[in-house]
Amino acid sequence: MVFSVLDLLCFFLFMILPYSTIAQTSRNISLGSSLTARNDDNSSWASPSGEFAFGFQQIVKDGFLLAIWFNKITERTIVWSANGNNLVPQGSQVELTSDGQFMLNDATGKRIWHAESAGTGVAYAAMLDTGNFVLASQSSSRLWQSFDQPTDTILPTQTLNQNSNLYAHYTATNYSRGRFLFALQSDGNVVLYTTNFPQDSANSAYWSAETKNIGFQVIFNQSGPIYVVSRNGSVLKPILQTSVSTQNYYQRVTLGYDGVLRHYFYPKSASSIAEPRAWSTAVSIPENICFSVAGEMGGGACGFNSLCSRGEDGPNCDCPRGYTSIDPNDVRKGCKQNFVPQSCDQVSPEHLFDFEVMQNTNFPFGDYEHFTVVTEDWCRQNCLDDCFCAVAIVNSGGHCFKKRLPFSNGMIDPRVDAKALIKFGKDNSTSRSGGGAITKKKDNSTLILVGSVLLSSSGVLYILLPLITYLVVSRIYSRKAKVIQPRPVMSGMNLKDFTYEELKKATNEFKDEIGRGASATVFKGVLASDTGRCVAVKRLDAKVRENDLEFKAEVSAIGRTNHRNLVQLLGFCNEGEHRILVYEFMSNGSLAGFLFGESMPNWYQRRQIALGIARGLLYLHEECSSQIVHCDIKPQNILLDDYFTARISDFGLAKLLRLDQTRSMTAIRGTRGYVAPEWFRSLPITVKVDVYSYGILLLEIIFCRKHFVEVADNEDEMILADWAYDCYMQKKLHWLFENDEEEINDINEIEKYVMIAIWCIQEDPSLRPTMKKVTLMLEGTVEVSAPPPLS
């Protein structure tokens, strides 16, 4: 690069400026002056020309930023700020005290920010026409200046020294520190970095000026170019090379919240109607940040599970199929799945998952398997069969790279010689429009057709037209009344009141039995009126006669529940002696069959099931409109859906608690072994009976064995709760799963779960935790303390 004599002359002139006194005419701000944050234009100090101002700008409602901005343009673009991480309310004040301290206090007087080197010898402050705010001595020497404390922007004549950084804002409207930084390092290299967000330390460089060991300062020349210079003042390398005059244009170099460093210019006056008065980009680095940001750590340019593509004004961040933005107001937070992940025990995954194929797309780094000399079809099938695989990358060289969640550095670029196969869950939902709506459309079409024929006929038909029209319309509305008038639903919920004949037909006259209890039998059914939807139809035995009002009250309360970990009640039948409940059909049966079958489910899946049940009980106890005690929590009453999500079912014994009561007296209910001690002592019944049952169930989930097993040679092992407690006290929990290497390798987590279970099965209900606390302990939010002894 060859530099003109004029460029070098300008450069050396501005090398001297930082060490000179304030030569320009300035409006000095005297000691004791202050500004107050308020909704007007009077809370600022302007530079002599009025081109810059220092003061408060309102960013959000009752949120003010102490800042410097371009004061003669409509946008009032901010170039420096003091409290981006901590906005202050109206009434806050910045003050240059009588002893030379310069500080920002909020409306209560609490100090938010201060100029660290200010104080001794400060005689006045000044907002300069360069955009620099200074604190000066009586001899006009600069004791503190905003140019030495940059935020995201540098201005003409400004210098960055070693260990100086520019930090991008978090978003376009959030001035707190964001995810990217521009730095002149102590070793002299100038780099753009991603940060270890939310910390502001450097993470991974995505651009470099390659001036290591020789760079000393970065100078924004008034004639446009931005240079790296050595210690002896020689120009090493331009960072952004332009020739824009400061006489005709306002200029700034800003590190955008998207990680791109841009040189902007803005005409001071419109030279023609065609020239817009707005910020334009002269040059930027890197050329394509989507292609540049690809570190081994972090989410890339757009966050985890996202895709970055080059746009006209910067990178575009999008989510692939099957994913949605975590925060629509901040697309760089990345994307999350909007489908249930593939289960590692799922059979025939090809029926539930597919791939979105994206050309010229890659997610560099984060591979957990790599295959060579394979076909795309082979790679696709291998990923489909692998429950850990979220994305497969194939290229023209026959390479196959598999990636698990979360995947990072997503980029779409013509230079990428790769194809991404992104796994997503198929949408198995179908339209559930009522038959009446379809029939209505068909009948209206018939009416139009008949009318058209009649109107096109000969004049003789005019005599018959009123009569025929009457007959056709009457028939249509008669049919509509038969087709679209459903059975009434219960007030305040979407529960259907089925007829007995409907359910008899749906279950093929109650022939396909899938479960049986002490007082009810469950049948599989198919609802013809709901596009062939499978349902579980629970018919209560006719000999079990309870009050019809109580039955309807329970249906009403349970019908208003709606939670991911509850089996949804769809409707009921209360016709004559027939009392029937209609539930969602759970394809993977009960937890009992899952836990106590031939093969042991994996530990991770069991933990997820335990957490799901806890969340469902928390909803019943504290979050739904009517507080419900289930009273019969056991593996047979926990069902598993298509994705093995735990769903609490069988509310036949549920006790409804009024909002003004927390305890209830009732006869013994539930299943022995899971029943809390207070049932047998005629003590008040509370939600803690479910907590006890959950504790027994949790032990069964942990060890995959029933709560009571008759063991001929060792009576101590017959009752699971007693044996687990003894093993816990003796620090010998491994005795309970000698053949399960997965659990042995996670013994600390196992111990935590056993401790939670012991807390739950305390004899004194007051010692048992609430389901909310149980959930927090399972999630790891609350520490699990040592439980008291079991009496």
Automatic annotation (TrEMBL):
Binding site for ATP: K538
Recorded GO MF terms: ATP binding; carbohydrate binding; protein serine/threonine kinase activity
GO cellular component, one term: membrane
Keyword hit for Membrane: yes
Membrane topology: Single-pass type I membrane protein
Keyword Nucleotidyltransferase tagged: no
The EC number(s) this enzyme carries: 2.7.11.1
Signal peptide start-end: 1-23
Catalyses which reaction(s): L-threonyl-[protein] + ATP = O-phospho-L-threonyl-[protein] + ADP + H(+); L-seryl-[protein] + ATP = O-phospho-L-seryl-[protein] + ADP + H(+)
InterPro entries xrefs: Bulb-type_lectin_dom, Bulb-type_lectin_dom_sf, G-type_lectin_kinases/EP1-like, Kinase-like_dom_sf, Prot_kinase_dom, Protein_kinase_ATP_BS, Ser/Thr_kinase_AS, SRK-like_kinase
Main location as per UniProt: membrane
Residue intervals of the Protein kinase domain: 508-782
Domain Bulb-type lectin intervals: 20-148
Sequence similarity: Belongs to the protein kinase superfamily. Ser/Thr protein kinase family.
Subcellular location: Membrane
Protein name (database record): Receptor-like serine/threonine-protein kinase
UniProt superkingdom: Eukaryota
SMART domains tied to this protein: B_lectin, S_TKc
UniProtKB keywords: ATP-binding, Disulfide bond, EGF-like domain, Glycoprotein, Kinase, Lectin, Membrane, Nucleotide-binding, Receptor, Serine/threonine-protein kinase, Signal, Transferase, Transmembrane, Transmembrane helix
Record-annotated membrane-spanning stretches: 447-473
